[in-house]
Amino acid sequence: MAALTDWDLYIDGAWVPPSSGERFPTLNPFNQQAWATISQADEADVAAAVAAARRAFEHGWRQTSGLERGRLMNRLADLLERDADRMGTLESTDNGKIVRETRSQMKFVARTFRFFAGYADKIFGKVIPLDRRDMFDYASMEPLGVIGIITAWNSPIALIGNKLPAALAAGNSVVIKPSEHASVTTLEFAKLVEEAGFPKGVVNVVTGDVRTGQALVRGGGLNKISFTGSSHGGRQIASEAALNLTPVVLELGGKSPNIIFDDADIPKAVAGALAGIFAATGQTCIAGSRLLVQRPVYDRVVEGLVARAKTIKLGNPLDLATEMGTAANEPQFERILSFIRSARDDGAELLAGGDAAREGELKDGLFVQPTIFGNVSNDMKVAREEIFGPVLSVIPFETEEEALAIANDTNFGLASGIWTEGLKRMHRVSRELRAGMVWVNTYRAVAAQTPFGGVKDSGFGRERGEEGLKEFLTTKNVMINLSDDERDPFAVQT
């Protein structure tokens, strides 16, 4: 067995061991073998990282021109593109997602860095005309300061790409805390930050379990927190951050409705529905886990789904022929299986899958069969709670009004999909869906330019696009008296 790589913390431009000396193994979900050890940062380590970020912000980074920030970000994008295959392999080893997707994600993150690098020297203010001509007023956009970034295990670098480029373009410094279940690529990413030439302390990485996250959120010194994870985790972070009056951006869970109308291109819709739930092993907040199908095409859609689901190739995530990888970790694997048991107990009709996959090369891995339940009622647990796995609930409906009622009958509001050839219906249903993202005749498409985020229990704030940049800026207003006249100090200065 090869020696494990011991990973230190990245603080103030240096690799430093954890103060406590505590480390823990990270497991490859394909074979359950330890392949690296991760540092457990304690309160002292986190405080050191926040202090380093504060020094970097106050004594250099905030004064760095947008042109220079953009140059560094473009250089980092170059390096990420250069190492996309290597980084994708590492991430697939760490969380079991197929390497075709992780490599693609690395390149998309590079694109996102380039998008925000272009914004870095274009953060404009505005002159505001006042009632009095002897007063001059302008508002400027300024960085917030130190940003805490907390990411989940399903797509570590992609989630960093939703947050870090905008934060850096705006002129902030950051402390990143990745999930303890998938930290390796975030640490490797810090090496690219070094190579790109960012000043020390601008980007810091602290690893560890929930104790590290609590130290970051509770410790103070942050000007904003951006978190991706479960709704339960988001509530905890928002509550803790409120004690320090720290604002938050929360990108949380989803139970997204994917609606197929009877006028849809059915083969295209079936392919989109499959990708919406089984891509990334369903371990994505935007998974189209509730498939609403209009009655006249219900049997045809189900037949297509089941036939294709049974052919999905499970296997080594590093094999380019593999179509679906593993659950990312043991707790998530058990959680997915528990939801499958619950759906069967509640009377949902099992159409495909329904168990762990253990045959052949899958025997040691955390594999779950692509699972489809039919004739699901929207009040069943399988349709109400986020599973974060390859489990599809197919729900029939009769009318457009019923489809909207079912789609919006959820605590979540992150993503949604519509499949129809009717132009008026596209606009009508898009308008009425209560979700932050609506896809029409596609699903899981992403772009650096478009805002992303949810409503209700799916969180608040936006990532990517111009709206994502604004999350990391604050407005300063400056009002200047141009007159030499003395005025009554007690009069209202309108």
The stretches of 5 or more residues where confidence is low (pLDDT under 50) are none
Question: How do the strands of the widest beta sheet line up side by side?
Answer: 15-16-17-14-13-18-19
Q: Name the average pLDDT.
A: 97
What structural category arises from helix and sheet content? alpha/beta
- Radius of gyration over alpha carbons? 24 Å
Global shape: globular
State the assembly state of the protein chains: single chain
The end-to-end distance, rounded to whole angstroms, is 76 Å
Tally of DSSP β-strands: 21
Helix content range: 25-40%
Largest sheet: 7 strands, mixed
User: How much of the sequence is in beta strands?
Assistant: 15-25%
Number of helices: 15
What would your notes on this structure say?
The strands form 5 sheets. A 7-stranded mixed beta sheet has the order 15-16-17-14-13-18-19, sandwiched between helices. A 6-stranded mixed beta sheet has the order 10-9-8-11-12-20, sandwiched between helices. It has a 3-stranded mixed beta sheet with strand order 1-5-4, covered by helices on one side. Helix 1 (43-61) packs across helix 7 (210-218) and helix 2 packs antiparallel against helix 4. It is built from 15 helices and 21 strands. The protein has helices spanning 43-61, 66-82, 84-95, 99-119, 156-169, 184-196, 210-218, 231-243, 266-278, 295-309, 330-345, 381-384, 400-408, 423-432, 465-470, and strands spanning 5-6, 9-11, 14-16, 23-28, 33-39, 126-127, 135-143, 146-150, 173-177, 203-205, 224-228, 248-251, 257-260, 290-294, 349-352, 371-374, 391-397, 415-419, 437-440, 459-460, 473-481. The mean pLDDT is 97.
